[in-house]
Amino acid sequence: MPDATHFTISELAKEFDVTSRTIRFYEEKGLLSPARNGQHRIYDKADRVRLELILRGKRAGLSLDESREIIDMYAPGSSNERQYRFLLDKVNDKQAQLQRQIDDIQQLIMGLQEVRSRCEKALKLNKH
Amino acid sequence: MPDATHFTISELAKEFDVTSRTIRFYEEKGLLSPARNGQHRIYDKADRVRLELILRGKRAGLSLDESREIIDMYAPGSSNERQYRFLLDKVNDKQAQLQRQIDDIQQLIMGLQEVRSRCEKALKLNKH
DNA sequence: ATTGACGTTGACGTTAACGTCAACAATACC
DNA sequence: GGTATTGTTGACGTTAACGTCAACGTCAAT
To answer: How far apart are CA B56 and CA B59, in angstroms?
Structure first.
């Protein structure tokens, strides 16, 4: 049964290689709010997407609060014009911040590139 | 006296906008090891560069341990061939990891770009 | 009816990355 | 010689992001 529409907590845990505890923790922190069947949690596709976003944010080095900010921007929001402008500003800021983060990482990569060159040069001299 | 060769802890703290406590903490963790004048710490240009690397790593979302790994790659090391090959491998791995991190961030940016489009479209319709 | 798999809610433990505060030393200034 | 500034070493406090239990519910299979 591929491409299911609903998931249990352990299915998601296995798929994304995190523990159930972690997923429940994200809910405590307000990043997820799955439906319930009795007391059991049921996750739909939207919940799954949110979890993916959280974990991507984590790999990117974001805190849960920062990931939450991003997730909240995806929410429909009240179709008020002022709110849209506000959201647009926030999106711009966040994009700029993420871009600065990329710049920092690229600097780190370039720094390592020099280390690499020195290594290769040393190995070459040694070989001859 | 611009471009000094030595710095006190509070000079560096002010320049990089961190507290002295933070700089001392980095030393506790083995990321810095400044000289001493009596019991006072004295930082030279190399120390300053290391601090810059640490803070860049921080902005990039790295842990102190990860930043230390990178800093250690800059160290001369024993000019043994096996060690060079080993270092080269580590540098390659780290570069690849940082690149994956960039990819994740770019995905986040692209996701936000869609949010932006929806916002702008909504504002346009509203304007007319 | 009991065992086992899966889930639940607390509650407490842990690590990283500092902040905060106390008690003290040295140096500079008035 | 007092005092203000800048530094030092502990020691304890704090927040984020979970891990690790304990105690319990529920449903299917033996």
So the answer is: 5
